[in-house]
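so ive been stuck on this for like two days lol. basically i have the seq below and the ligand is flavin mononucleotide, smiles is in there too. i just want the complex predicted, nothing fancy, no docking runs or whatever. if the output looks off dont worry ill sanity check it later, just need somthing to start from for the group meeting slides
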Amino acid sequence: MPAVEIKPGIFWIGVNDRTTDLFEGIWPITDEGVTYNSYLINDEKKVIIDLSKAIKSDVFFDNVTELIELSRLDYIVINHMEPDHTGVFQMFRKIAPHVTILGTAKTKEMLKNFYGITENVRAIEDGETLSLGKYQLKFFNTPFVHWPETMMTLEEKTGILFSCDGFGSYGALQGSIFDDQCENIDFYKREALRYYVNIVGKFSGPVLKAIEKLPAEEVKVVAPSHGLVWRKFPAEIISLYRKWAEYASGSGDIGVTLLYGSMYGNTEIMMNAVAQGISSEGVPVEIFDVARTHTSYMLPSLWTKAGVMVGAPTYEGACFPPMVHAVSMAIRKRVLNKKLTIFGSYGWSGGALRELKRIVEPGKWELLDSYVFLGKPDSEDLKKGEEFGRNFARALKEQA
Ligand SMILES: Cc1cc2nc3c(=O)[nH]c(=O)nc-3n(C[C@H](O)[C@H](O)[C@H](O)COP(=O)(O)O)c2cc1C
Ligand SMILES: [Fe+2]
Ligand SMILES: [Fe+2]
């Protein structure tokens, strides 16, 4: 995408990535895409804020050189060292070695370790300002959103906050970079939540600290490094991030994430009965087949809902492996303090329940009930299953 002017002399020069299948090598973005937003300020001093992944580097450099000669660039501000924002660094260094790189003290260390860069690097102080002529940058250390070196940069005259991964989202841009020109804002909000839980959610404490530290009244535009630039409703994406961060210590909304897996359909038959029981109480339930769904898509539901219902058969004396993976990932991503129920079919001696209890222990999930049955459930079993689902829904409503 060609450069877009956000304010006079301040440009988006990002890369719209519609070809990468897995973000960070894990999270699916085949259908959604992603952007690596980079920004250029063409003032007396010329600055690029955050770079891009080493993909479509020609597009990135074309965008820069359409606006300024590289020999005239003064600074590169690095809010975050992850290679989705620094991948073009080595090439940059070769063609513009004179440019001064600005980042936190930790960034300076990491530049050496990741790219062997030690020359022309300056560590900025938290709260330091840098005058560019007409514009002035102010730097805020915001460690662990989501790496130790992360910071955010505010342009004080326009109130544009270059927040890097903070307030970011999956989703390639569909013509416009701005929230107010976007037809399907709900897509970006949904993808922002998926991005949040996949990438940043484990660091919800540092996210809340960063939000408290930023001068909210001065922020007029939120320009993250992934997804839309929020110029009409900058407060909205910040308040969504705050809300999502608060789930880390709260109990979640009334609702059930129903994760199930089934080899021959026995657990699946029960899953439908259990889901009917939950729904009959008017409690929302979102169902995922763990063998067919990437954890990326389950995590937003797990993050925001109070209840988790796990339906898994026994496999080799333990739990069905795709379920082990799904639940372990949730615990790893600090999905904490959930109410849990477990059901599943077994053939002779069982074992799924035992393994699941062990996996969820570090997440402080409270097991309210369990229901295991032999082989294929009969109509009596299914009645019990429906009741089992209903009881869980009631318990969630009572505890809300
Ligand atoms: C590969 C495989 C391994 C199994 N291992 C065990 C086991 O160790 N213990 C047990 O009680 N049942 C075991 N079973 C039996 C299943 O738990 C049982 O068939 C159950 O009904 C499967 O439920 P599903 O149709 O929902 O997949 C195994 C089944 C398969 C296919
Ligand atoms: Fe990152
Ligand atoms: Fe990123």
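The pocket of flavin mononucleotide (ligand 1) is lined by residues 262-268, 313-317, 345-351, 375 (CB under 6 Å). The chain is about 35% helix and 25% strand.
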